[in-house]
Amino acid sequence: MKVPVFKDLEKIEFQEKPTPRIGPGEVLLEVKWCGICGSDVHGYLNGILVPPGTVMGHECAGVIADVGEDVHEFKVGDRVVPKPLAQCGECYWCKKGQYSLCPDGLGKAFGISPEHDGAFAQYLRVEYPKEMLFKLPEGVSFEEGALVEPLATSLHAVRMSRLGVGDNVVILGAGMIGLGVLQFVRLGGARKIIVIELSERKRAIAMETGADIVINPLDEGEALRERIFEMTGGIGADVVFECAGVPSTFQACASLVKSGGQVILVGINDKEVSINPFFLVLWEVELKGVLGYYDEFGLVIDFLRRKKINTEVLISDRISLESLVEKGFHRLLSSQDSVKILVNP
User: CB within 8 A of 159, min separation 6: which ones?
Assistant: First the structure.
C-alpha cells in the first residue's frame, strides 16, 4: 500500500509499505475515512509533535479486517472508531479517569511517530483494541465516525467547563473544534452563544449550527469587549472557549469573560503570548487548559446515533489519499474557510 510519509517541513513523500502485520491481542483496521486534523497541518508546516518518518492521521473510522489471537471483544467486519491514545490503566491519572493525562498515552498513540503509523493509509494496526476501539452503531456512517475524535475533544472541553443552564458563552474560532463546542453548549442549555470568527463561511456555519450571534472581530476592532458586554447585560460571558489557537484570541479571552468567569483553552497555540495576570487576579478569572478526552468517545457516538449533532455542514470536502498534500494540507493552509477535510485511502 502507498502511504504519505512526512520527510521534512512541508515535504511529504509517498512510499510503498506492506500491509501491517498484527500480533496477538492486536487488530487490523481497514480505514474508510480519515480527517485532517489541525495538528497534522501544524506537523506538516513546522514539525510540532511529528518527527520525520511519520505517517500521520488519527481521526478515522473503518472496518476490522483481521484480529489477532486473544482478541475477544471484536471480530472481522465490525465497524469501529479507534481512539488514537491508549491509556495504561494503572497510573495515578488513569485511576482517576483522566486518561488524556496518562504519561504513556502519547508513546502508544498512532499517527505522531515513526514507530506507530497513522491512518492516512489503507490499513491501520491497532495495538490496544480493548482500550482504543469503539463500535459504530447502525445509522452512523464512516464519515461521521471520522468526526468522533475531534468532537470528543469539543465535548471534553464543555464537560471540563463550569457551563450551567442559562449561561452566556463566547466561542473564539469556528473551526471543527469550535463548531463542536457550539453544538454541545447548545445541548447543555446555554442561553446566548456568541461566536467570534474571521471567515464568512464559518460564521454562516456557526449560525446554522446554533449560534445566536456571530461576529467578525475585524469589524469591531478595539470595541469588541464593549460589544460582548452589551450583549451580556453588561456582565461578560460566563464561559469563554478559546478554540482558535492563535495569540490574539488567547489575549482577548480575559477581556471578554465576566468577573468570576472561566476561560477554557482548547486551541493549540505553540507561540509565547504575553498576558497581564493582574486582570485574572482582579476579576477572579479561572484560566483552564484542556487536552483531548477522557471517556467522551462513547458519548459522542451516542449523540451521533441519536442525530443530535449536525455533521454534514462540518465536512468541507472529501478527497483521495493521493490528493492529501495539494487538496488537503495546502488548501487548509491557504484558506480559512474549510472546516474538516476527509481523506479516503
Answer: 296
Query: So what's the architecture of 2-147+311-344 in CATH?
Result: Alpha-Beta Complex (3.90)
Q: Where in the chain is the domain with CATH 3.40.50.720?
A: 153-289
* Cβ-based neighbours of 17, under 8 Å, separated by 6 or more: 1, 2, 3, 55, 117, 121
For 153-289, CATH gives 3.40.50.720
pLDDT tens digits along 95-131: 999 999 999 988 889 999 999 999 999 999 999 999 9
- Angle between helix 148-160 and 176-187 (nearest 10): 50
Element (H, E) at 344: strand 340-344
Give the DSSP H/E element, type plus range, for residue 49: none
What does the pLDDT look like over 18-62, one tens digit per residue?
999 999 999 999 999 999 999 999 999 988 889 999 999 999 999
